[in-house]
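Person: I have long wanted to understand how a fold can be written as tokens. Underneath my words sits a plain record pairing an amino acid chain with its backbone structure tokens. Those tokens are not coordinates but codes from a learned vocabulary of shapes. I should like you to check that the lines agree and flag anything odd. The protein I mean follows directly.
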Amino acid sequence: MTRVYAVASGKGGVGKTTTVANLGAVLAEAGHEAVVVDVDLGMGNLAGVLGIDAGAGETLNDALAGTAEVSETVREGPAGLSVLPASDALDDFGKADPTGLPAVLDALDADVVLLDTSAGLSHDSVEPLRVADEVVLVSTAERGAIGDTAKTSEVADRVGTPVMGVVVTRTTAETDAESVGERLGVELLESIPDDPAVAAAAADGTPLVTAAPAAPATAAYRRLAAALTGDDSITATADEPASTTGPAAVADAEAVAEGDEALDGGTEADDESAEGIDTGSEEGDDANERTGFLRWLLG
């Protein structure tokens, strides 16, 4: 039986896409049939994090527009992971109808499906929360990120989808990850350390299980995969984490940090721009329908 998780956050840049990519790769490496789906129809970047060229074939946008079969959109990714990318062309954004997402999910043959949702509030970001079996929140320990994530959690509650818990990213020895879960009123699923290997792997388009199988962050994603599936063998077979905080690793991380931020959701300015694209023009019928949906949802 397929289990669908919407991996969601309140804003970009907190590690949501990185979590989807690496969690999916860990599951696939462990023998689970896993599919990751980029449902950020306007600004998707999941494919790039996994070393896949979204423009080299059919995408989720095509499936939602009715111009391609779902089977034509699924790409083979690293570690045996299946990837359904979103188009990175703005012209394809308006053609895709998010209400077709349930049919797409029904066509996928997998144990676990992870939906990489878009940031902000729009019809396109709410629909994945509505159709998922559970929501996995992703946040850093920063106050602003927690506040935005709390809004996403509230939306999930309003559409009737349970929140499984929160993954806190970029943690250090000083981070109180448990308090993040407490502030959100949900369980802490896992704490992902601020590991230089994460940025290096994302910049290279390679998941951590391939690029740095013994890194601390890789071990954390293995624990998260075990928590989601109940398959303790995922962590039992993992190598002992090796240090990734040496001078060379830190230098590599600094060199790619800016790129990693862009891959994982961008700056707040990018988020504002994305929200503008998501809500669309109020002059169009589609925009009026989506605006009305949100007013109904949040009213």
Remarks:
- The longest strand covers residues 163-171.
- The two ends are 35 Å apart (CA to CA).
- Residues 239-287 have pLDDT under 50 and may be disordered.
